[in-house]
Amino acid sequence: MLKQIINGRILTPEGWLEGGSVIxxxxxIKAVSNSDLHIVDAEIIDAKGCYVVPGGIxxxxxxxxxxxxxxxxxxxxxxxxxAHMKHGTTAIFPTxxxxxxxxxxAACETCEKLMAEENSPVLGLHLEGPYFNPKQAGxxxxxxxxxxxxEEYEPLLDKYPCIKRWDEAPELPGSAEFIKSCRKxxxxxAIGHTRATYxxxxxxxxxxxxxxxxxxxxMPVVYKEHEFKVPGTVESIYALSDMSVEVIADGIHxxxxxxxxxxxxxxxxxxxxxxxxxxxxxxxxxxxxxxRV
Length: 293
Fold this sequence. Notes:
This protein is of the alpha/beta class and 293 residues long. It contains 7 helices and 19 strands.
């Protein structure tokens, strides 16, 4: 059955559309029209002046509704995904913080099961670690952080096509081989939790690293070494025009003036907005999977 959303302010790639409508056929958007004339036999939905915007693609999210994707269970995945879908997310890449191989395997099994369902919002799995610089651990569990281990990541990449992105620090030994393996399997390699120098960033980029995890967070900016200024990871990523970034745009993780700089340098096409939400998002639960939270 057709549905027609009218009386809303519609966001399109060309800007805001006033007085138009969105026509939906089943679970697909059939058209965005500049006319709000009622379509015969369509169910009319009055937006009452509210915004009508595309659904969010959540590409960095650890959980919600009181559950964490690190749990690996189908129940945890479904609860967390449902919590985000209630608030405008329509496609999601569940994210695991630095985890053990058995934890990654459990999450992969669950993710592949959900991805196989009809009209699934799950588009793949995002692994944030464990191949990070321990000096930039941030909220990661430090005991599980280490350099890339080919005997670990190769079997995982070979077995689980659900892995779509893997974050890593390019200054670590074995990094180039890890990045190339990710690219060979069609996995996005992203830089994160790092103290990479300009040379490290360029080496990672040349190996196939194309994205920056929660840009500005868990990575250094320009610093002084004796009388010389040294570009940090942030400036190095800015210098590579084809490298995309993601930011937690809450004005706290990245202050407004820095968000403006990201927009001016990277632009819309190379910038993604993320929540990086934990299990406590959209939840009144008082406990989390990670007992430190």
